[in-house]
Amino acid sequence: MPEDAKADWDERIALRSDEERAFAFPDLDPPKEVTAVGGVGHVTIDWSPVDGAVGYLILRGAGEHGPLEPVDHHSGDVLSVPSPPYVDTTCTPGTPYRYAVASVPEVTTHGRPSHTVGAVPLVAGSVPPAVGVTVDVVAEGTELPRPWVPMIGSERLSQLLCKDETGGHEIGVELEQALRRMHDELGVRTVRAHAIFHDDTHVIDGDGYDFGVVDAIYDKLLAIGLRPVVELGFMPRELASDPTKTVFEYGAIISPPASYQAWYDLVRALVEHLVERYGLDEVLTWDFEVWNEANLEVFWSGTKAEWLQLYDVSAAAVKSVDERLAVGGPSSAAAGWVDDLLAHAKQHGTPVDFVSTHTYGSPPLDVRASLKRHGYGDARILWTEWGVTPRHFNPINDSVFAGVFLLRGMRSAAGRIDALSYWVASDHFEELGRPPRFLHGGFGLQTVGGLAKPRYHAMTLLSRLGSVELPVTYDGDGGGSLIEAWASRDRDLIAVLLWNLTLDQSKADGAPELTRHVQLHLAGVDPSWQATATTLAIGVGDLATTADGLPDWPTADQLAELADRTKLVSTPLESRDGAVELTLPMPSAVLVELGPRRG
């Protein structure tokens, strides 16, 4: 990949100028009520939500006169967050700060800041601060949303057919095993991947089409029990206006088509073929997503107007087969072009059944405001890529921090997003080249060799939550900001997932001052019930730490031992008068389960 393309990849989003915007965004008022409270090692900022905001930007200045600048939690992507509170751990204990909050109507702009409020982060003492977490176990509760279940990301699915090996492991076999595990153990239902029109699927055959490779791919996927999210891209060489414009080591073509009619014909032919092969009732459950991250030049060599034309043509082709088939986009980086697509579709009557976009390093923004603004309030919201970092080969991908980050993001998305798709299932992933070693900071939830990373363990903990969500309240230093909980009930089992996390990636390896002593209150639980704890922390369920000292490619015996040493283990936990005491370092998570004693 050229150096300028790598720079665009790392930056993720280039802010557009006012002249490039197709319409004016509302001038949102700032939050009226803003507070900042200093705690040990942090400041927690809270505010009143603003109607029409997709997120909020936190601003900070040192002392009484320092300039207000965005708080950077080192995500490498959008710094705005979807909702309060925000915990700032990038501050220096003992230093006075001023904070303000600005409303964000769309990712490329924000409104004027709120009034400023002062706070001083506190210096740590010898004993961790206490936090109280109270669960109403007898409440009626509500249905617990599961935004991780609908979708997972994957390397391009043609790799399911690949016989090559990485580190002695056959790529196609292990990718299939990884996807099967996502379905069988975690209940994931669909897979979203790039490049169904890449050269290696050979969909153009002279003057006609050949979908034989696509059939082999989707046959394998459906046999697992998974359905595809059909990302319409990249550009077949035979249709490209400039086939020299490529991305990734495998040379995916990113140019517009030479003929939009030819693109229409290809999309329509594919959809017709899928309906004929798998049946209309089946394909009506699939989603068709137009392209990938066209708002980044590295993924689309054309203009925004040309991509909007591609969307119109693609949507028309899908709907020409059956109006009920679902099509959407913009499948954009960093929540860009959402408003652009919706404004365009509203003006031209183009269908948008779902809105899809991506972000990394923060919980996903609340784009319901954009949908409502343009009259698409009924459209589904699919975050078809999300993760702890947008950067390949970043060690944070293998860390416990990333696993706890996954928990925080899924909790934030619950109830407001239809799918939050973690990118990706397996380290068999080769956008910038195949894995150079066993642990290399790969995007996968599972390694080459099929071992669970902390992010997979986090998904496992989520999957053990019950069907009924229970109310939770907090008190103490960091309660509800550093320390969060997701509580549930399922017949005769109470499950409470607690974690300690800051978004500040400079503290990914831990920060002793952020450790908290947590007392979990569960009044009303049968005193005869047994409590267990399943922990994810540095050194516990922690593949990277445990694998230290192993060769670049461990042997089969070493992998088996590593899997055993890093598996999740439940241990008995003492409960007194409906209370459980825990110490939670940052980062860490604990699943507390209570139920009748067995045997």
Brief rundown of the structure:
It is built from twelve helices and 32 strands.
Task: Describe this entry's structure for a reader.
- Helices cover 23% and strands 26% of the residues.
- It is α/β, with parallel strands linked by helices.
- The strands form 8 sheets. It has an 8-stranded parallel sheet. A 7-stranded antiparallel sheet has the order 9-24-26-27-32-29-30, covered by helices on one side.
- Helix 9 links the parallel strand 22 (380-387) and strand 23 (419-422).
- Helix 9 runs parallel beside helix 10.
- The radius of gyration is 24 Å and the shape is globular.
Provide the fold topology:
Layout (H helix, E strand, L loop, with lengths): L2 H9 L22 E6 L2 E6 L7 E8 L6 E2 L15 E3 L8 E8 L12 E3 L10 E6 L6 E2 L7 E4 L10 E2 L2 E2 H16 L3 E4 L10 E2 L2 E2 L2 H13 L2 E6 L13 E2 L4 E2 L6 H19 L1 H4 L3 E4 L13 H18 L4 E7 L5 H11 L5 E7 L7 H7 L5 E8 L12 H14 L5 E4 L31 H10 L4 E3 L1 E5 L6 E8 L2 E8 L15 E6 L8 E8 L5 H4 L9 H10 L4 E4 L5 E6 L3 E8 L4
Parallel strand pairs: 8-28, 10-13, 13-16, 16-19, 19-20, 20-21, 21-22, 22-23
Antiparallel strand pairs: 1-2, 2-5, 3-4, 3-6, 6-7, 8-25, 9-24, 11-12, 14-15, 17-18, 24-26, 26-27, 27-32, 28-31, 29-30, 29-32
